[in-house]
Amino acid sequence: MQSLRAAITAVGHYLPEDRLTNADFEKMVDTNDEWIRTRTGIRERRILKDPTKATSFMAANAAKELLAKRKLDPKEIELVIVATVTPDMFFPATACLVAAEIGATNAWAYDISAACSGFLFALSTGARFIESGKHKKVLVIGADKMSSIVDYTDRTTCVLFGDGAACVLLEPDTQGYGLMDSEEHSDGSQWNSLCMLGGGSLNPPSAVTIEKKWHFLHQEGQPVFKAAVKGMADVAAAIVERNQLTGDDIRYLVPHQANLRIIDATARRMGVGMDKVMLNIERYGNTTAATIPLCLADWEAELRKGDNLILAAFGGGFTWGAAWIRWAYDGTGA
Ligand code: ACO
To answer: What is the CA 262 to chain-centroid distance, rounded?
Structure first.
């Protein structure tokens, strides 16, 4: 028997139906399909248009899909963690709203804020509750309604982001599957390269914060790009080298989907061809905390027990990290 690990045993996802294509952006700002595709790899994104619905709606729908697939009683869930930077409200935590909506009445619930690394940080956190023996069923969700904080007059950011949610169930494993290793980092010294200045205790909402557009995401693309290329590639390489994995051992790299060029650099550094990289940025854009679990949902049907996956992300904070997962089940049936 191997040591107690947290295995992903089910996946669920939710994507809103409405799409914003590059052609739509050509009518909104001074941009074009060619620039967006070559600089980012994005063709379209999903947008949650209904103004009465927020991140918890998408997260709960993703969770409901997972519960239905596994025919699981929501009362069995012991902990719900939602990674998001677009919570429905500052408080209560979006995870509390999700737990109530899905009927996970025996669970405790809280949010994690780590921008694009949010899912990885939440996965690592949730895994500790399994590995310690405290819990047997932990739901980890990545969800963001980026359209709620994107300035659709700013061409440098608006073309990048989309809305979506996806989740995984963590359960104990003693057969050598699950989260094998992970590494997490943060560095707040460049916080202002990627942030939302207004609305918090530093700049509470006021006529001034609205006038200055501080309730929108702000990103300085170049410094973030440079840090992301290095951070994501370094941390993914560190996990691979520490565990003596080669490109041949890896079934898939599952990178955060912010920019095709960042993903390409990470794959090259790891010695993994692009045929082994999960890519859906073209269809969904950057859904922040949802990108990695959305990839897992899209590729779930073709994953096999024992497949080695390397997850890697970089985001605002800065935050970054990587994880090695040995997949625990075949196809869509756990
Ligand atoms: N259409 C046309 N032109 C544009 C657009 C657009 N949509 N956006 C910017 N440009 C212009 C710029 O104004 C600039 O013009 P100039 O030279 O006349 O000033 C030119 O294109 C080049 O701009 P750059 O910012 O240098 O473009 P770059 O190649 O860096 O691409 C991008 C920008 C895509 C944002 C890139 O920097 C990037 O991907 N950054 C990292 C994103 C990331 O990883 N974020 C972390 C995760 S997100 C999170 O945590 C929430």
So the answer is: 16
DSSP 3-state of 164: strand
* Ligand 1 centroid distance, CA of 10 (Å): 36
Looking at the chain, the domain(s) classified CATH 3.40.47.10 span 5-176, 180-326
User: In sequence order, what DSSP letters do the residues of 102-141 get, joined into one string?
Assistant: HT-TT-EEEEE--GGGHHHHHHHHHHHHHHTTS-S-EEEE
Tens of pLDDT, residues 202-238: 999 999 999 999 999 999 999 999 999 999 999 999 9
In terms of CATH architecture, what is 180-326? 3-Layer(aba) Sandwich (3.40)
Token pair belonging to 27: 């009518």
In angstroms, the CA 293 to CA 275 distance is 19
CA dist 37 and 35 (Å) reads: 6
Looking up tokens 């359960």, which residue turns up?
171
Residue 209 structure tokens:
């914060």
Task: Say if ligand 1 is within 6 A of residue 265 CB.
Answer: no
Rounded CA separation 32/49 (Å): 23
For the domain covering 5-176, report its CATH number: 3.40.47.10
Q: What is the spatial distance between Cα 258 and Cα 226, in angstroms, rounded to a whole number?
A: 13
Q: Could you tell me if the CB of 39 is within 6 A of ligand 1?
A: yes
**Model pTM greater than 0.85?**
yes
